[in-house]
Amino acid sequence: MKAIKSKIQSLLQSADIHIDGSRPWDIRVLDERLYNKLLVHGSLGLGEAYMDGWWEADALDGFFHRVLSSGLDRNYAITPRGVMGYLSAVIANLQNQTRVYSNIHHHYDIGNDLYKAMLDKRMVYTCAYWDDARSLDEAQEAKLELVCRKLGLRQGQRILDIGCGWGSFAKYAAENYGVSVVGITISKEQVELARNLCGSLPVEIRLQDYRDVDEKFDHIVSLGMIEHVGYKNYKTYMEMVSRCLEDNGIFLLQTIGSNISVRTTDPWISKYIFPNSMLPSIKQIAQAIEGRFVMEDWHNFGTHYDKTLMVWFLNFDSHWDVLKNDYSDGFYRMWKYYLLSCAGAFRSRNIQLWQIVLSKHGVTDGFDILRHGSRSQNTYIEDRKTRQNKNIHQILQ
């Protein structure tokens, strides 16, 4: 045990993390069994030990920022469970139509009350855009507006939203751009609430798998859904988009991205948060779109996800006195670990957030987009009606 403890202590020090140190990112070991669990189970053991109260840190986000920035996570990347997870992903399609419903149910159907407390007023469960925003509500509206401008929405168009969540994009686009939207999700909880939130707008919310869609749309958008598709299904996913997109349409894909090509996700995330999820790499996306799309724009604003996750945690934490009536103390530690470890991962640039704009044959005059907020939040909210009937070249000045 002493040798294991000494080795882990040395590794942590290489990441500027001290055991029982006084800084926010230092850890306090409350149960000596932590060391052996780390050795045997790697990152899964680290997360489970935190859930069991075996260790603590005042700033989990800071702890993970240092672990991942130093590459310390790679020292315990290979464990028996990790090997079995990798082999399962290679042998089986873990995101096929039989498994995918249970994967999504595990995370998105745990209670709309949790997400209402944690998210912004529109219930957007993807990265916000903070360039000119002063609050989460503003930052999420800025992201939705950015997506609409990149798509070049025009009144009367028909849009497909793959993985529509609680209908935030569909509602925003229908209200502000006069489009009709079909949103698909396989979460029953999301379907029910999204239909209520979208009311009498020209929005149709379906409980439907993306593989079952076979109709034409002017534009297609997918915000934070391809992380559940799996590497074996990327080409199927892109074939469906190509089949359903009009020839002059735009497809906007927003996804968390991995710096390297992987076939599985972190074992703790897979077991407790997003079963059988995985983050695509640039190479994997490129292979899936080759021969099907022209890549018009690739926008990385992963640093914005760090702030988004930190605000989500503050919202979750501030509402815990009410939420704890329906969720256990163990759930609190699990959810805190999830949100703050992910914030640290984005802060370390270990993972990214991409918005990718694709066309089937190339935008004739080239694609251009204002990204960095020279237009203030208030400015583009005030002139929505003016923009509704402009085409993409008039919008992108």
Strand content: 5-15%
- CATH names the topology of the largest domain as Rossmann fold
- Low-pLDDT parts are 77-95, 373-397
Mean pLDDT: 87
- CATH architecture descriptor of the largest domain: 3-Layer(aba) Sandwich
Number of domains: 2
Count of helix runs: 18
Within the largest sheet, what's the order of strands? 5-4-3-6-7-9-8
Rg value: 22 Å
Give the N-terminus to C-terminus distance in angstroms.
64 Å
Structure summary, number of beta strands: 9
**Looking at the structure, what is the overall shape?**
globular
Tell me, what is the CATH class of the largest domain? Alpha Beta
Order of helices and strands: HEHEHHHHHEHEHEEHEHHEHHHEHHH
Provide the CATH superfamily of the largest domain.
Vaccinia Virus protein VP39
Describe the protein's architecture and organization:
With 397 residues, the chain is an alpha/beta fold. The strands form two sheets. It has a seven-stranded mixed β-sheet, with helices on one face. A two-stranded antiparallel sheet has the order 1-2.
Q: What's a quick, concise take on this entry?
A:
This protein is α/β, with parallel strands linked by helices.
List keywords for this structure.
globular; 2 domains; 9 strands; disordered C terminus; 397 residues; 13% strand; two-stranded antiparallel sheet; Rossmann fold; alpha/beta; 18 helices
SSE inventory with pairings:
Blueprint: H1 2-14, E1 27-29, H2 33-51, E2 55-57, H3 60-69, H4 80-91, H5 100-108, H6 112-118, H7 136-151, E3 158-162, H8 168-177, E4 180-185, H9 188-198, E5 203-207, E6 219-223, H10 234-244, E7 250-258, H11 267-272, H12 282-289, E8 294-300, H13 303-318, H14 320-323, H15 329-347, E9 351-359, H16 377-382, H17 384-388, H18 392-395
Parallel strand pairs: 3-4, 3-6, 4-5, 6-7
Antiparallel strand pairs: 1-2, 7-9, 8-9
